[in-house]
Every structure is written in structure tokens, then in C-alpha cells.
Write a structure and sequence with these properties.
34% strand, 4 helices, 28% helix, seven-stranded mixed beta sheet, 159 residues, three-stranded antiparallel beta sheet, alpha+beta
């Protein structure tokens, strides 16, 4: 058995119910975390110590907010969306309305607002999102994923 399957996840009951509603399985959480921990592919909140990682699978991108501790990982939130994040946006940073807290773990720099391209059902959208100015790893918040992006996905599907 691999280490991935032996890593304990701490998930409170209320969050477990939400994850079930969202169709997010513990195996998927472990995939996202294992991948992120292997290559520092996560963002960190230096105030809380939270980590936010994502992994794009063929049809869905999964996000997991978690804390790492001696016992394993405490899952704080998880969500998904079906829009594909295009790499290589290379557009100049913009001013955020308020300072961004999240930092790129791999590059050790604060995220900046950048115009990022998202694709869904052959439609491309340019959206201002936090991203690492060096490696261009994007951060999509839970609010954006489960509200705004979900609405846009539904509207495109209903066309």
C-alpha cells in the first residue's frame, strides 16, 4: 500500500456532508494533496498556515484547502469546477482591491492579480484572478468556483 493511502485525513462531519453533496471523494483529496506536497504546488496563507492546492483531472479541477500537521492533514474545504485554466497568461499584474494574503509555496512570493484565461465548452473567458507572478499558478477561491463559475457553466450548458 502506498503512503498516499496511509495518510490520515481529518474531516469534520459537517464538511464531510458538504463534500458528499459536491461529489468529492477522500481519494480525490489525497490525490490533490499528494501531488501538491510533492512539488510545492500549493499556495499558503502565512497568517493561518492554511494551504490551498488544486489538481486538474480530465474533466474537473479539484481544490483542497488544508493544514498539515504531525497526524496528517486537516481538510478545511474542498470544491471543484469544470473550467480549464489555460497556462501561460503572461499579462501584466493589476492592483488588487485589497492586499492579497496568499503566497506561492514554490516561488515564495505573494500572489498578484492577473488576467487568466479559462475555457469551458469551447468558450474562452478572461478573468482577473490571483496568480503567482513567477510560475503563474492560479488561485480560484471557493466563492468563485461554486457560485460564479458554476453559474457560467450552467448558462453555457443551457445554450
Amino acid at each position: 500500500m502506498s503512503d498516499e493511502h496511509q495518510t490520515p485525513l481529518q474531516i469534520d462531519l459537517q464538511l464531510q456532508r458538504l463534500l458528499e453533496e459536491r461529489g468529492i471523494r477522500q481519494e480525490t483529496l489525497l490525490q490533490v494533496i499528494s501531488s501538491a506536497e510533492a512539488d510545492l504546488g500549493f499556495h499558503t496563507d502565512p497568517v493561518t498556515g492554511h494551504r490551498l492546492a488544486y489538481r486538474s483531472l480530465p474533466q474537473v479541477t479539484y481544490w483542497v484547502e488544508y493544514q498539515k500537521d504531525a497526524q496528517g492533514y486537516t481538510i478545511l474545504s474542498a470544491y471543484s469546477h469544470r473550467m480549464k485554466i489555460l497556462e501561460g497568461f503572461n499579462l501584466p499584474p493589476k492592483q488588487a482591491a485589497e492586499p492579497l494574503i496568499w503566497r506561492c509555496a514554490a516561488c515564495e512570493v505573494a500572489l498578484e492579480i492577473a488576467t487568466v484565461k479559462l475555457v469551458y465548452l469551447d468558450e474562452t473567458f478572461a478573468v482577473d484572478l490571483p496568480a503567482c507572478p513567477r510560475c503563474q499558478r492560479v488561485l480560484i477561491s471557493e466563492e468563485n468556483a461554486v457560485q460564479k463559475m458554476a453559474l457560467a457553466e450552467k448558462m453555457l450548458e443551457d445554450k
